[in-house]
Amino acid sequence: EKSGYEHFMLKEIFEQPKSVHDTMRGRLLVEEGVIKMAGIWDHIERFKNANRIIIIACGTSWHAGLIGEYLIEEYARIPVEVEYASEFRYRNPIITDKDVVIAISQSGETADTMAALKLAKEKGAFIYGICNVVDSSIARITDAGSYTHAGPEIGVASTKAFTAQLTILSLIALKLGKHNGNLGNADFMSLIAELDAIPKKIEDVLSSTHELVQNIAKDFVNATNFLYLGRGYNYPAALEGALKLKEISYIHAEGYPAAEMKHGPIALIDENMPIVIIAPKKGHYDKIVSNVQEIKARKGKVIAVVNNGDTQVSEMSDYVIEIPETSECFSPIVASVPLQLLAYYIAVYRGANVDQPRNLAKSVTVE
Ligand code: M6R
Q: Is the entire prediction scored with pTM above 0.80?
């Protein structure tokens, strides 16, 4: 049921305050200052003694994995590798029984992710699942796991499952960091309070940017290309923003780490190139300011996602989308929301079938 929304995708975008909250419910106990996750706690020794964590996934779930790498390395100080399941399974990777392999999958049925997990299991790795669909194949084959409680996701373009995956990865990183002593109590307490505030911030973003983003989308209905840029935690968010746009609007879009621009993509920039840039205050802001200057010097059209009250990037940008400030590590959760809306409205105005884009299936059960 679309509950009055025109498409499942829009409904699911709007469900995110709830789906993120549901994913934290019973796990994030701010008052007590604890994160409860049975899947992690029951196997804490495996995580503690892990040589490294390998995250495997496809598509949007792989983007969540990249952010998971930043989170886990920053807070738990455990080395993390993130790999496309389809590459991992065919390249004879080195896997040992000291590795922890985390598979991320909304459907829990993705063929490549499943095959990669089987391989890791055969080699003795401890395998952990982050799935949305309860009792799915991946959820069943893994040694342990944590469900994202996003609820059923019908739109082929993943939205609420992605932010729920980021929520779980945040919880895991903070829990492991606290446990192994890399994350001090004061920092842990302030991070969990920030995380707890995310559903409300998503709600604010939905109400404050919905109309604005619709208007921005109207100006880009005929665009043929888009670049999405971000740095640090928001580099994978840029990849995800670009994927959303291309899969539902069929406009070619690429995501890049902003600093990589001068290694090639800057050659593409002219007055016809729209560039979405994610520029929150916390997270290499000064560097982003110079990236925006470089783009404007070449007349690119900048759509900037900035924090409320931003001036420097905003003054240079053609379009400004304001979002509330949060810790850098959680900013992709909030920043992704207007990017989902942007992709959605551009696709709708182009008359595309947003919930069922051409050539795509909700779960990719063949390789
Ligand atoms: O169900 P999974 O999370 O394993 O699916 C992985 C990808 O097929 C999926 O994220 C795909 O990229 C989506 N259409 C993205 O919106």
A: yes
